[in-house]
Amino acid sequence: MTITPPTPTLQGPAIEITGTLHDRYDEILTPAAIAFLTELHHRFASRRHDRLADRMRRRFEIGNGHDPHFRADTAHIRDDASWRVAGAGPGLEDRRVEITGPTDPKMTINALNSGARVWLADQEDATSPTWRNVVEGQLSLRDAIRGELSFTSPEGKEYSVTAERTPTIVMRPRGWHLPEKHIAFIDRAGRRTAASGSLVDFGLYFLHNAQALIEAGRGPYFYIAKLESSDEAKLWDDVFSFSEEYIGLPHGTIRATVLIETLPAAFEMDEILYELRDHCAGLNAGRWDYIFSIIKNYRGRGARFVLPDRSEVTMTVPFMRAYTELLVQTCHKRGAFAIGGMSASIPNRRDPEATARAIEKVAADKKREAGDGFDGTWVAHPDLIPTAQAEFDAVLGDRPNQVERQRDDVHVQASDLIDLHIGRPITAKGVRDNVSVAIRYLEAWLRGLGAVAIDNLMEDAATAEISRSQVWQWIHQDRTTEDGTAITAEYVEELISAVLREATRSADDRFDDAAEIFREVALREEFPTFLTLGAYARYLD
């Protein structure tokens, strides 16, 4: 079944729903919601395409030797000490521990019961964007906000929200680059394109839940992913302003936290805050996508831009220290919260030793962040909340944040952000781990799982991107492993075969498709900008 509007004419744009409608989908895809999505696309879809074209030009420039820099034409924004962002909205004053995860009913309930201060309800990297996940994730959020969510597993286990105080929800829509192929936008001239995943995710959540969130003493809050410039931030700010006016909310009701997870954005943090200042709560250090962005932009620039094993690219290497310290300084100068990133280590309740190692690593990571001035941090598992909170409690005490800590001691130059020298080798294990993790993650992603525990690490689309992009770069930069083995396409093909042989197979697994996707994004001459784009178009229903 599809929802088909009247044939579009030159008098007006339209939205067409082509995805199959299942039980309760009409509660999300209402006439009012379709009308709102139509307006969002009519007003902003063209500007979105312009911003994506800007990304391509910037990536081409970096690839051809033009390093990113702090912009001369916006120096007056950076130099003006007077302006501040809106800051925390109701329920966002204390963000010392945030839990992240997808929005299926079980994970939603677990997050709401977790004891975290904030839940990042993730429709982006932790969600495989199947049509069911997109719409039913919206249903989970709608029900949770109204206190109506419950879930019974196939095994008969019942889940319900029991916490007296649930985390403040900050929803993360998909980035500007991602389409929604089950919804088409037809413009005034009758041209038909896939809808924007960003506008669909944001629009459905905002329209259905903004008023209910406000009545509950919180508000419509968003994490904004994959931004690459202040122009992209300005586009989001205009979307927010229009949306508030559309349903009659005061300007500035929406609060956004921007993930600084691309290299170009790291050079425009002040400018991003400025463009979003009426709607901005803070910035987040999106470490995994940031590493991926560096590899993607510098993949063809020679040996000095080649990183070692993924496990060696830690938050303490110089270029990552520079990025995070600049983020804290920039945020606090403008009254914005600085939120730390997610350590990939997770506990394993069946393996006490692995759990002890994970807790030790997470404790060290969060101690460093709290000591550096971050106001909060992410975890991916409820069992890690006490560990993370203890480290932030030790620094914050009863204070809700440490925005007053200005970090005047930080002096980051443009060259610091692109000094990728680590001094560690590429190992055979590092290559094999990248191949194995990427294929196993993709196999789960094709089955509709966006966040997957693999080898006691939480993997999502961002970490899979690092794995496949490193393999691509190592091949194309003629790298060798520590023992002198050349990293070639043939060598990697042998590893792919080994991963498939060792996998636990079933009649309905997706390992063969996953391996084919990996070959396309890691072994071919062309480097796809995102591994999920082609896979989404070809494989996901």
Number of H/I helices? 18
- Class from helix and strand fractions: alpha/beta
Low-confidence stretches: 1-10
In what order do the strands lie side by side in the largest sheet? Answer: 6-3-2-13-12-11-10-9
Mean pLDDT: 96
Shape descriptor reads globular
Distance between the first and last residues' Cα: 14 Å
Beta-strand content: 5-15%
Total strand count, please?
A: 15
Radius of gyration, CA atoms, in whole angstroms: 22 Å
Biggest sheet overview: 8 strands, parallel
The helix fraction, in percent, is 40-55%
Protein architecture, described:
- By secondary structure, the chain is α/β, with parallel strands linked by helices.
- The chain is built from 18 helices and 15 strands.
- The strands form four sheets. An eight-stranded parallel sheet has the order 6-3-2-13-12-11-10-9.
- Strand 12, helix 11 and strand 13 (376-379) form a beta-alpha-beta unit.
- It is globular and about 65 Å long.
- The two termini are 14 Å apart.
- 50% of the residues are buried.
Features:
single chain; 541 residues; alpha/beta; eight-stranded parallel beta sheet; three-stranded antiparallel beta sheet; 18 helices; 45% helix; globular; disordered N terminus
Short synopsis of the structure:
The chain is an alpha/beta fold and 541 residues long. The protein contains 18 helices and 15 strands. Strand 4 and strand 5 form a beta hairpin.
